[in-house]
Specification:
about 270 residues, alpha+beta, ten-stranded antiparallel sheet, about 35% helix
Length: about 270
């Protein structure tokens, strides 16, 4: 499902008239434009499987293993749900994200999902420390303003650990106040996807939002951006072109990877005979 010219024009119309303001910190910038996520996956060949007239969007990967659900009518605090089905070689996994998660941060994760993983895994607490976050315990770090928390949680002593991210109002007489948004990754979520999300979240670079963005937190700092509206649109289009090219490159390599197990199986069968 490639992104059509009409869809790109609608994105451009939405952003061209809006003067961008640099908005920080990222975890308080509000959700922004969900098309940072959906357009990226569509450019990589993901297809929509839900009614086009429904507010719910379900996108499915080309191999039918991964699905992303966006449900603004959800009865829970999770508006985004990302699932991977189990295969013979890999376990299934699940991640969810709250209504006000910044789309650019979530988009960084979905970009990582459709591109080859890096050879080396990042140390997330070192990444956070380098960005000015403070590590409260061995398994938890807080943003400089104390409103966003990244934690590696275990359900029990012997259980695998899952990552939990939570942005909350300041606590008044308590450690934290009401929750603004959350992200949760189960213990089987590939590490490079969690790395991509947390690295993008901690990036001190501002996000672009409209002035007095309604869904941004009242404490965000906004300054007129050096970017022109057209540059925001051009950056979006360039990203889609890069993702489309990367997805094509990955698909070209898949038949070669698929041929290897068949050859091994033939060898074992010959040896057995």
């Amino acid at each position: 499902m490639p992104v059509s010219e009409r869809q790109l024009a609608a994105f451009a119309d939405h952003h061209t008239w809006r003067i961008p303001f640099d908005t920080s910190p990222r975890h308080l910038a509000g959700p922004g434009d969900a098309r940072h996520v959906t357009h990226g996956l569509a450019a990589a060949g993901w297809t929509r499987t839900t009614d086009p007239l429904s507010p719910e969007i379900v996108l499915c990967s080309t191999d039918h293993r991964h699905t992303l659900q966006f449900d603004p009518q959800s009865s829970t605090s999770a508006w985004w749900r990302l699932r991977a089905a189990r295969t013979d070689a890999e376990p299934g996994w699940y991640a969810e994200f709250g209504e006000l998660v910044p789309a650019e941060v979530l988009g960084h994760l979905t970009d990582a999902l459709i591109t080859p993983p890096p050879r080396e895994q990042a140390d997330l607490f070192q990444v956070l420390e380098s960005a000015g976050w403070r590590q409260d315990t061995q398994h938890m770090a807080d943003s400089p303003d104390g409103m966003c928390h990244v934690e590696l949680r275990r359900d029990g002593e012997d259980a695998l650990a899952g990552w939990h991210v939570e942005t909350c109002e300041p606590g008044y007489g308590t450690p934290i106040g009401p929750r603004i948004w959350h992200a949760w990754f189960d213990s089987r979520t590939p590490a490079h996807l969690v790395d991509a999300f947390v690295t993008a979240l901690a990036d001190p670079a501002p996000l672009q939002r409209g002035m007095y963005e309604r869904t941004a937190h009242h404490s965000v700092v906004q300054q007129p951006s050096l970017l022109r509206p057209q540059q925001v649109v051009e950056a979006h289009t360039a990203r889609l072109d890069a993702l489309r090219a990367q997805a094509r490159a990955v698909r070209r390599q898949q038949p070669k990877a698929a041929a290897a197990p068949a050859k091994a199986g033939t060898t074992r069968a010959t040896a057995h005979r």
